[in-house]
């Protein structure tokens, strides 16, 4: 049972720049997976295609067996995404942001409210539930992005550079939270350009460079080779 199957993924941006040159990637259910690579390697493009924010030029993507081409609604039900940019409505209240998001997935209001409360408590945002998002600190906004991605209880959580620009204290608490989510069964994929982050958290690491997967291995084997 694979959480994510990517086959021969290609992306050429308008203007002709070839960002992805045939990416193949399989992430098993339950894994904690890092997609590592330098800036400009194609990490965000790959994740953008998986969550259908970016159109692909060629190839296939399946989330728990659901193709994003033919079965997008079910693929999305299984997928939570934490993008790099904060893209919530700054004037909406924290609690409402989560309930609104759950509504996109057709989750009934009562269940949505329960799920919102659970993740706001777990991420230390419950006291802020009635604040508009713009009143939160940067670190709180990061955590709100994670809570929003989880409110429909996806089986696969994807985070794009989750701790870029985050102070060490928040980074540690985010790591602990993600490890606990993974222990309880959520498959996690994150992109990072910090080897230490991949090393601290992940069981499998793929390295992407110039639009190609140049290595795909268990963490243990990778560290042995360095
Ligand atoms: P990473 O996330 O690994 O830093 P990206 O996937 O963001 O890399 O970018 C891969 C390459 O594609 C980079 O060279 C980047 O400049 C280019 N790129 C990204 N978005 C666009 C776009 N909208 N139009 C043209 N080129 C883009
Ligand atoms: P779209 O308008 O592309 O259909 P949705 O209605 O699915 O997007 O989602 C609306 C909001 O949820 C947007 O803020 C978007 O960034 C975010 N979003 C889109 N897809 C996902 C996803 N798979 N998981 C989490 N959030 C998503």
Automatic annotation (TrEMBL):
Taxonomic placement: Bacteria, Pseudomonadati, Pseudomonadota, Gammaproteobacteria, Pseudomonadales
An annotated Gene Ontology molecular function: ATP hydrolysis activity
Superkingdom of origin: Bacteria
Domain ABC transporter: 4-226
The entry's keywords: ATP-binding, Nucleotide-binding, Transport
Protein name, entry field: ABC transporter
């Amino acid at each position: 049972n694979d959480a994510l199957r990517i086959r021969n993924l290609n992306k050429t941006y308008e203007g002709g720049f070839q960002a992805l040159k045939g990416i193949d990637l399989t992430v098993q259910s339950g894994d904690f997976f890092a997609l590592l690579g330098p800036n400009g390697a194609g990490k965000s493009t790959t994740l953008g295609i998986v969550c259908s924010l970016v159109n692909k030029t060629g190839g296939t993507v399946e989330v728990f067996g659901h193709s994003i081409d033919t079965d997008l609604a079910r693929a999305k039900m299984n997928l939570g995404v934490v993008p790099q940019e904060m893209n919530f409505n700054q004037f909406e209240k924290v609690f409402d942001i989560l309930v609104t998001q759950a509504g996109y997935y057709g989750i009934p209001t009562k269940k949505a409210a329960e799920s919102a409360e659970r993740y706001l408590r777990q991420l230390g945002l419950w006291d802020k539930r009635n604040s508009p998002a713009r009143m939160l600190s940067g670190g709180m906004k990061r955590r709100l992005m994670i809570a929003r991605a989880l409110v429909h209880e996806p089986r696969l959580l994807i985070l794009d550079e989750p701790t870029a620009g985050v102070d060490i204290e928040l980074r540690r608490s985010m790591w602990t939270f993600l490890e606990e989510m993974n222990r309880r069964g959520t498959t996690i994929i994150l992109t990072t350009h910090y080897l230490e982050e991949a090393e601290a958290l992940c069981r499998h690491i793929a390295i992407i460079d110039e639009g190609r997967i140049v290595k795909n291995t268990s963490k243990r084997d990778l560290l042995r080779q360095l």
